Structures are given as C-alpha cells and as structure tokens.
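pinging the channel bc i need a second pair of eyes. not urgent but kinda urgent?? the chain im working w is below, pasted from the shared doc
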Amino acid sequence: MIAGMLFIGTVVVYANLIQPAAVEVGAQRQLVFSKSAMFASQYTAVDRVRELIIKFQGTAKLQDTMDLVMPLTAQTTELLNQIQAIARSSQVSLESFSLSFLPFESGRSSLVRRLGVLQVGLSVSGSYASVQSFFRALERNVRLLSMERLDIRVVGGVRDVPSDIFIGDATVRAYYQP
C-alpha cells in the first residue's frame, strides 16, 4: 500500500509540477530558438547592407575617378589649369595655347555614348629634358588625352654655338561626355 501511495504521489507531483515545468522549458527553448534564428537572419541582412554600402561607396569613388578621366562637360578652364601645372612642374614655358571644339564622335554601337572632342594646340619651350618631361607628363595626365601631332625642334644658336633651348609643338585631343 505504501508503494501504491508513493506511486500515486509521484504521478500527482509529475502531473502538477514537473509536466508544466517541462512544457514551460519547451516553450522557452522554442522562444530562444526563434530569437536565435531571427538574430541570425537580421545579422545576415545587416551584413548584406554593409556590403552594399561598401560597394556603392566604391562605385561613387569610381564615378568620381571617371569624371576626372572623362568629365561630363568640356571643362576648358580645368584643362588649361592642368596643362599649366604640368608645364610648371616640368620647367617649361607655355608659349601658346589654342582650343577648338570638334564634332562629336559616335561609337559603333548604339550603347556607346557619343564623345565630345576638344582639339588643343600648344607650344612649349625649355631644355630638351624639360620638354620631354612635359610631354610624358601630359600623356600620363589623369584626363583622357590623345596626342595627334608632336614636333620638337631646336632654336638656332649663334655662330657655331648650339642652343640648348627646344620648342615642342603638339596637337592634343581631350575628350568629354556631353
């Protein structure tokens, strides 16, 4: 009889205390699992947003660089400033500068935008090394330029004394996106 009472007492304790606690533990585990899953999905979403922000920042930097290489307008003043800065750093004198707008150049594909073209005529003078340095720097300038013509000649000396002054004449094309 004592064994029966103990058995019934155990069933009562189990039914009244242990089973509700087990159900509560199960519910808490489900809550923890769902919150963990939600946190993981939010973390993934935040990580993707962070990657997109970094990607778009890179795109903005790329767009800024492209605007320097091929500006959206002719920007003739900036082009002249770049050429003057290159002349100063190369230690040559900018003797002449002329500028003319050429007709737009269109690409073969309809997807390619047309290009605006500025034809720049310029003449510089200085030592041979300086003139050479100027044209090298002009070729490596950040703005997209193409050298159409280049002529370097020495200025005549006096009575069998050679001159160390050279003149470089060039025709350069600068491009922009109208």
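so The two ends are 102 Å apart (CA to CA). and The chain is about 55% helix and 25% strand. — does that match what u expected or am i reading it wrong
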